[in-house]
Design goal:
CATH class of the largest domain: Alpha Beta
Structural class: alpha/beta
Shape: elongated
Number of helices: 10
Strand order of the largest sheet: 7-5-6-4-1-2-3-8
Helix content: 40-55%
Order of helices and strands: EHEHEHEHEHEHHEHHHE
Number of domains: 2
């Protein structure tokens, strides 16, 4: 439950034992200068290295640090949702664990939110973006989000964001088994802002997001937070029906003038092929939505907490 004036920093952690100590030290320094109460919630998402041992030490050494250990790897978004649900302060900031989001940039998000009264502020990365498969996948996901949520046009959606208590509370109440955090935020937020922030190179390891996984994420956004596929299939079906009608009219005109014996059969086959293709496409899209319904009614948990260290060791 969110309460009180202050800032809750939520960081999903996965195989990041080498960066955690520096991350916490820099966050404590930046937030201490901000002169508001704060806490740092680090959610271990089934790391395979020594991240949890490092988190236990950090929670013991730093009073504002709360370490949460999940039973397995549920994914970055689910781990972030766990941290948001546990946040105690009014403003919630989410960020990555690899120091690509500089802790010193957090006050920029907080200042923009306080000045312009935004519901959510995204950190927009400064400098040239370049072209990589991962960057292309990120652009694809951002494009899909903006198509599904027109009020977010012109906003670069990132995992470095600050949320008001109203939006954070709304997000924590979602009970979907396949959470899409930016989609949830955009569904709850009306005033959306952005602020330029530095984006530093990754220190160690490799990102878990590649073009294929980002493409799957874009497909999930389409099916879970928009009706774009249904509208696209409806448009496709209408287009194919129009083509079939035009083909039929063309056949009538041609047959009236030439009366060839095989033209009717050829046109019939073309029309049936078009209609069959449109029906199959519709079944694929409908199947996607049926799968979504099945996942939602299954009651599968978003995450399961094994243990908590720090913050009074609350269950």
């Amino acid at each position: 439950m969110l309460r009180g004036r202050g800032v809750s920093i939520v960081v999903p952690v996965y195989n990041s034992e080498e960066t955690l100590r520096e991350l916490v030290a820099r966050l404590v320094g930046a937030l201490t200068r901000h002169a508001e109460p704060f806490e740092i919630i680090l959610v271990n998402d089934g790391s395979r290295d020594g991240s949890w041992l490092q988190l236990e030490k950090l929670a013991d050494e730093n009073k504002p640090v709360i370490a949460v250990d999940l039973t397995r790897n549920f994914g970055q978004i689910s781990a972030t949702m766990c941290g948001i649900a546990r946040a105690r302060y009014a403003t919630v900031v989410t960020m990555d664990d690899d120091l690509q989001h500089p802790p010193e940039e957090v006050p920029k998000l907080l200042a923009a939110m306080a000045t312009a009264k935004y519901d959510v502020v995204f950190g927009a990365y400064e400098g040239p973006k370049g072209w990589t498969w991962r960057a292309a996948g990120s652009r694809l996901v951002n494009t899909v989000y903006r198509k599904a949520h027109p009020h977010a046009r012109g906003i670069e959606l990132t995992s470095f964001r600050a949320l008001t208590p109203e939006v954070a509370s709304a997000v924590s109440q979602f009970r979907t088994t396949t959470p899409m955090l930016n989609g949830m935020i955009l569904s709850a937020a009306g005033r959306i802002g952005k602020v330029p922030v530095r984006h530093e190179p990754r220190r160690t390891g490799r990102t878990g997001y590649r073009f294929s996984s980002l493409a799957r994420l874009a497909a999930q956004v389409l099916f879970y937070y928009s009706t774009i596929p249904l509208r696209a299939v409806a448009a496709c079906g209408l287009t194919l029906a129009t083509l079939a009608l035009l083909a039929g009219i063309g056949w009538l005109i041609y047959a009236a003038g030439h009366n060839p014996a095989h033209v009717p059969w050829a046109i019939t086959c073309i029309v049936l092929s078009l209609l069959s293709a449109s029906i199959l496409a519709m079944l694929v899209v409908i199947g996607g939505y049926v799968r979504r319904i099945l996942e939602e009614v299954s009651g599968r948990p978003q995450y399961v907490v094994r243990r908590v260290r720090g913050g009074g060791d609350a269950p």
